[in-house]
Amino acid sequence: MQIYKVGGAVRDRLLGRPVSDVDWLVVGATVEQMQAEGFRPVGADFPVFLHPRTGEEYALARTERKSGRGYGGFTFHASPEVTLEEDLVRRDLTINAMAEDEHGNLHDPYHGKADLEQRLLRHVSPAFAEDPLRVLRVARFAARYAPLGFRVADETLQLMRQIAESGELQALTAERSWKEIERALMESEPQVFIEVLRSCGGLSELMPELEGASTLAALHQAARHQQPLAVRWACLLRGLQPAALKALNQRFKAPRECQELAMLVGEFAERADQAPQLEPASLLEMLQKFDVYRRPKRFEDFIAACEMAALGSEYPQGEYLRGAAEAARAVDVKPLLEAGLAGQGLGEALKGERLKALEAYKAA
């Protein structure tokens, strides 16, 4: 039995980046041997085990072959006869196909270290084209390592085009696609993810609504300001028609807060840009739609998305909207309750008081 550290932990150590998760590969062992050593099996599709003390994942060396469409269309074979090289060749990129043994020696049969030095994202073997999810993964890695000067190798980009043209991207589940999109959006250069997808034809297959969009600068700005996922998603989708917004949200089953914010930005961003000129009634309608009284963070995220679209320019409308929300929230419901108002009558009276507060705010 030989145990190797593999994948991202090796890659990031060589890049001098922090290593968070460590993947372990076991060569020359059987399921029975692993269990005898106290490892607990957790893999449903192939043998993966949890270390009895650290809880880290250890996977048996395996090979795979294409057996169907999509990300899950593979048959795996794990046995003590599978070599380190045979396991590594099934991985996506050369920079992810390196291993370290227990003595810290680097095993690099597919020249990943050289590609790290050349800042290239290059596929390991032609089998890369069998897994459509790798189109999104490579685009995500391009977004992650863009600040270091990485680019996708020409021959890898060509394989990604072949996958896009094959229609295989349509076989990806919403959950798997969204997981890659979510992770890509949270990288330091998320706009690169979209640019790479566009360059290989993947964007027109997965998100055709964004083909003519010019929102990447806002997305980049959101990343620079370390905005949360919902704000980044809303920045990316800003300017789309309601039907296109709804289609993208539903296609990838985006989280509810992402869907809601994107739809609200689509509906109210232009109104927010004109906030100081809005009549108090129009301003109140917007605040009511956002439910700024119970969900203040959602309105703050909305303002942030509008600020990101200003691309670093001053956006005084943001402070104006914050002040308006505060004025509306400051209205005290207690006197209305003491006056005996309830139900619809209370709601109308409270709305009237908030309108007066916004009129005073605008006049100030």
From TrEMBL:
Gene: cca
Cofactor names: Mg(2+)
Domain Poly A polymerase head: 4-122
Protein name: CCA-adding enzyme
Signal peptide feature range: none
Domain tRNA nucleotidyltransferase/poly(A) polymerase RNA and SrmB- binding: 149-211
Family: Belongs to the tRNA nucleotidyltransferase/poly(A) polymerase family. Bacterial CCA-adding enzyme type 2 subfamily.
Enzyme Commission number(s): 2.7.7.72
Taxonomy of the source species: Bacteria, Pseudomonadati, Pseudomonadota, Gammaproteobacteria, Pseudomonadales
Annotated Mg(2+) binding sites: 21, 23
Residues binding CTP, per UniProt: 8, 11, 91, 137, 140
The entry's keywords: ATP-binding, Magnesium, Metal-binding, Nucleotide-binding, Nucleotidyltransferase, RNA repair, RNA-binding, Transferase, tRNA processing
Other notes: A single active site specifically recognizes both ATP and CTP and is responsible for their addition.
